[in-house]
Amino acid sequence: DERAQLVEAMLADVVAACAEARSVDEILVVTTEPGVVPAGADVLEDDGSGHAAAIARALGDPRARSGALVVMADCPLATAEALDTLSSAARPVALVAAADGGMNALALRTADALEPVFGVRDASRETLERAQAAGVEAVVVEEPGLAFDVDRPADVWKLREHDVGTRAHDALEEILPPKDGLH
Description:
The chain has helices at 2-20, 51-60, 80-89, 123-134, 144-147, 153-162, 167-175, and strands at 28-31, 42-45, 68-71, 93-97, 103-108, 138-140. By secondary structure, it is of the alpha/beta class.
């Protein structure tokens, strides 16, 4: 239950950042659980076969034809400003690598600009290699809020200790309350 509470809070933070971003016209959440999607986002139901399939499904949706901004739901420090920066850097592709080499966010000027790699350890490097092989310009954008994701218990504690003002932090305050004056 606590994990679900944190996941829903992180998704709500990402959707809120998207809603505030000037570069985002519509929000589409790809999920196997439509009931967790916050108001203001459209739902594209997923069959649960993994990141790559979910993103391919989203990029194949007619709403993504004129471009897409892909953000993983476990990036609760995403901001509208970071998303706008990423979007404006795409000429035609820009990405934010995760600290572990994965990929947390991707901007595509057109949905068919490149077939990205998601859900594997070296996703950012592999996506850059695909772009180079296809002759597509791809840039890496340094955005600490987008580079941070919650994959391991240490990430949960880092979020709990350093972030204030997000739904995810509020959820962690409830799940992991300070004890004996320790924060």
